[in-house]
Each structure stands twice: as C-alpha cells, then as structure tokens.
Design a protein that fits this description.
The chain contains three helices and five strands; from the N terminus they run E-E-H-H-E-E-E-H. The chain is of the alpha+beta class and 144 residues long. It starts with 6 loop residues before the first strand and ends in a 5-residue tail after the last helix.
Length: 144
C-alpha cells in the first residue's frame, strides 16, 4: 500500500456514499493538491497569505507569449513552494485554439517517493480585453 503519499479531503469537498467527507488518496490527493494550489490566488487565505499562485494576476492580460511565459513561471514557482511531494519537470502555457479566453497549462511532474511521472493540463480562464476576439476575427464566425 502507498499510504505514504497522503490522504486529504477530496476537491471539491463533498460527502461520500457513507455520509462522510469524501477523501482523495495517494496520486489523486497530489493531483487535487496541485489544482487547489493553482486555483487559490495569493492573499486569499488570511492565516497563510503567501499560499497559492500568482497566475490570477494575469486575469486581464492579453493572450500572448509574455502572458504564457508568466503563467508558466507562476505555476512552476507555486508548485515548487507548496507541493513538496513532487518535482516539477516542465510547465508550458499555450493559448487554447478553441477558446480565446483560456490558456492551457501543461504540467509534467514526478512524484518524488515513487518516481512516477505524470502530467496534468490546467485550464486558466482569462477575461479577454477589448478588441481581443481571437479566433472570431480570424474565422469570421460570430461568438455565441
């Protein structure tokens, strides 16, 4: 058994079939911890204001290479600080070709205790600025 990887509350928090708070175990706990770190803006937790990820500062940023580079940097920094069970191998951010308001962040990591390599795609939703209609202008299609 690999209990040494940890057990924590499942995210989002919900009740299991036995009426208890649902738990996530082992690799699933690590994946949910990664998502929790990335979904938490820095400063949101009162007793731990440094917890979370700065990616939320990019909410209104343009969908360009600079924003992608910053997103990747912020994700790698946050995971390096707050998830000691993993070693981040690579983080790459790219605009979603289908949804112009979204960045897709590819995270490749290794679970230190087992040397198990995994990957995760984290969608980060931006709020496009004025005049930034992405694929709509390129294809001539209307947003809907």
């Amino acid at each position: 058994m690999r209990d040494f990887l940890g057990t924590g509350w499942a995210f989002p928090i919900h009740i299991d079939a036995h009426g208890r708070i649902a738990l996530a175990r082992q690799e699933r706990d690590i994946e949910e911890a990664i998502r929790l770190i990335l979904l938490t803006p820095k400063g949101q937790r009162v007793m731990r204001p440094e917890f979370g990820c700065q990616i939320h500062e990019l909410l209104f940023a343009p969908n360009n290479a600079t924003t992608c580079g910053l997103a990747a940097y912020y994700v790698e920094e946050a995971l390096g600080m707050w998830e000691p069970r993993i070693r981040v191998i690579s983080v790459e951010a790219r605009p979603d070709p289908v949804e112009p308001g979204r960045l897709l962040i590819d995270i490749e990591y290794e679970i230190k205790a087992t040397h198990d390599r995994r990957s995760l795609v984290f969608p980060f939703y931006r709020i496009p600025g004025e005049g930034e209609s992405g694929l709509v202008e390129a294809t001539g299609q209307r947003e809907g």
